[in-house]
C-alpha cells in the first residue's frame, strides 16, 4: 500500500512545536494525499494478525485480572477499604474497556488484519459487549470519514451556526452552564448519540443507530443493522439474567460503572479530536476531502495514550489513512508532520483544561467578518 521513500514535496513552513490556538491554514494544501503517503514507510501499512491479537489478549488478561480481584477479594476487605477499592476498579476497568473499544474501532476500519470477516467478527463481539451496535456505528463512522469537516454532510460533532442555536444556548454560556453541559455530555452523551444522533447532521426524520430503516443507512446495510441490534439485545438479556443471579448491585459494580467510564471517555476523546478553536469547518462551496480530513487535532492523554492504543494522539493520521494499525500510526504521524507543516494540529493542553476551554470557546461557527461568501467557518463564543 505505502509507496515507500520520501515525498519530493518540500515541507510546509514549520510552526512552533506547541502553539495550539494558532489557526491551521484553510486554503488548499500544497501537497496531495499520495504525496503524504509517499513519506510513510511501506511497513506502516502492513497489518499483522499476531501482533494485533497480542494487544487484544493483553487487554483481555488485564480485564480478567481486575474482575477476578474485585469479585474475589473486595467483599472480604475491612471497612472502609471497599470505598477506595471499588472506585479504583471502576477507573481501571473502564480504561481497559475503552481500550477494547479502540481495538474494535480499528477493526471497523480493517486496520486489525487483512481479513474483513475476522475484523468484523472481533469488532462485533467487542462492540456488542459494550452495548454498542457495531455495524450501525461502522457505517455512520464511514460517512464521517468521507465527509469530515463538512457542515452539510459530516456525521458527528457537526457545529451549529449562530442562527441555528437554541434559545437556551445563552443560558449555558457561563461557568455553571458549562459544568452542566460537561456533566450531561459525559454521562448521557454516548447513549443520546446512538439513540437520537445528537451532534449529527439534521435529517428529515429520526436518525437512530438502532433503526435499520433510519436515514443513516442504505438498503444494503439494513440486515447488518438487525444483526447489531440482535447482539445488543442478547447482551442485555444476559445482563438481566446476571441481575437475577447476582443482584443488581453486583452487575452495576462489576460492569455498569466501568461502562459509564467508557461512555464518558468515548465522548471526551471524539469531542476533543474534532472541536478546537484553531480548526475550520467548510460549507460545500469550499469543502474538499483532504482539507476536511486535516480539520482534526491530536491530543495528549499522558499514560492513557498507551492504554487507549494511541487513538488519542494519532487521529490526524487515522483520518488520512484509516487502515494503518495503531502500532504503526505513531511512526506514520512523525514522518508526515514535516510534510503537513502548519496543516498538522497537535494540542498538548491537559484534557481536563481542554474540554472546559473548548466548551467555552467553541459555541458556534461563523465566517470571518467580510468573508460571508467564502464558505470557511470558524468557532465563536459571543452570544
- Share of helix among residues? 40-55%
* Radius of gyration, whole Å: 21 Å
Shape: globular
The largest sheet is: 3 strands, antiparallel
Would you tell me the structural class of the helices and strands?
mainly alpha
**Number of E strands:** 5
Salient structural properties:
383 residues; mainly alpha; three-stranded antiparallel β-sheet; 4% strand; globular; disordered N terminus
What does this entry look like structurally?
The chain has 383 residues and is mostly helical. The protein has helices spanning 33-38, 49-73, 82-108, 116-129, 134-146, 169-172, 175-196, 222-246, 248-274, 289-293, 304-307, 315-320, 326-340, 351-361; strands spanning 281-282, 298-299, 346-347, 364-366, 376-380. The relative contact order is 0.16. Mean pLDDT is 92; it is low at 1-10. Pathway: Lipid metabolism; polyunsaturated fatty acid biosynthesis. Its main location: membrane. This is Delta(12)-fatty-acid desaturase FAD2-like.
Amino acid at each position: 500500500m505505502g509507496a515507500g521513500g520520501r515525498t519530493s514535496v518540500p515541507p510546509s513552513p514549520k510552526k512552533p512545536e506547541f502553539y495550539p490556538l494558532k489557526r491551521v491554514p484553510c486554503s488548499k494544501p500544497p501537497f496531495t494525499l499520495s504525496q503524504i503517503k509517499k513519506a510513510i514507510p511501506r511497513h506502516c501499512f502492513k497489518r499483522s494478525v499476531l501482533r494485533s491479537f497480542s494487544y487484544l489478549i493483553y487487554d483481555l488478561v488485564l480485564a480478567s485480572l481486575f474482575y477476578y480481584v474485585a469479585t474475589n477479594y473486595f467483599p472480604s476487605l475491612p471497612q472502609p477499604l471497599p470505598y477506595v477499592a471499588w472506585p479504583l476498579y471502576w477507573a481501571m476497568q473502564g480504561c481497559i474497556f475503552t481500550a477494547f473499544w479502540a481495538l474494535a474501532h480499528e477493526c471497523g476500519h480493517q486496520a486489525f488484519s487483512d481479513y474483513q470477516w475476522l475484523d468484523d467478527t472481533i469488532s462485533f463481539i467487542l462492540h456488542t459487549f459494550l452495548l454498542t451496535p457495531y455495524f450501525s456505528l461502522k457505517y455512520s463512522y464511514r460517512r464521517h470519514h468521507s465527509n469530515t469537516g463538512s457542515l452539510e454532510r459530516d456525521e458527528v460533532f457537526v457545529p451549529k451556526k449562530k442562527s441555528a442555536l437554541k434559545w437556551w444556548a445563552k443560558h449555558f454560556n457561563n461557568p455553571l452552564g458549562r459544568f452542566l453541559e460537561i456533566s450531561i455530555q459525559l454521562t448521557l452523551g454516548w447513549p443520546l448519540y446512538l439513540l437520537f444522533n445528537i451532534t449529527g447532521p439534521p435529517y428529515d426524520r429520526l436518525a437512530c443507530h438502532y433503526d435499520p430503516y433510519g436515514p443513516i443507512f442504505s438498503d444494503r446495510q439494513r440486515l447488518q443493522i438487525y444483526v447489531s441490534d440482535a447482539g445488543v439485545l442478547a447482551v442485555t438479556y444476559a445482563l438481566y439474567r446476571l441481575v437475577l443471579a447476582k443482584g443488581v448491585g453486583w452487575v452495576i459494580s462489576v460492569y455498569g460503572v466501568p461502562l459509564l467510564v467508557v461512555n464518558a471517555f468515548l465522548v471526551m476523546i471524539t469531542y476533543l479530536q474534532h472541536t478546537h478553536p484553531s480548526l475550520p469547518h467548510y460549507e460545500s462551496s469550499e469543502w474538499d476531502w483532504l482539507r476536511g480530513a486535516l480539520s482534526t487535532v491530536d491530543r495528549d492523554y499522558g499514560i492513557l495514550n498507551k492504554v487507549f492504543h494511541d487513538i488519542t494522539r494519532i487521529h490526524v493520521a487515522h483520518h488520512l489513512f484509516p487502515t494503518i494499525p495503531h502500532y504503526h500510526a505513531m511512526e506514520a504521524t512523525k514522518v508526515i508532520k514535516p510534510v503537513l507543516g502548519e496543516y498538522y494540529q497537535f494540542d498538548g493542553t491537559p484534557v481536563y483544561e481542554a474540554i472546559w476551554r473548548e466548551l467555552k470557546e467553541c459555541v458556534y461557527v461563523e465566517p470571518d467578518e467580510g468573508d460571508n461568501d467564502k464558505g470557511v467557518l470558524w468557532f465563536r463564543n459571543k452570544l
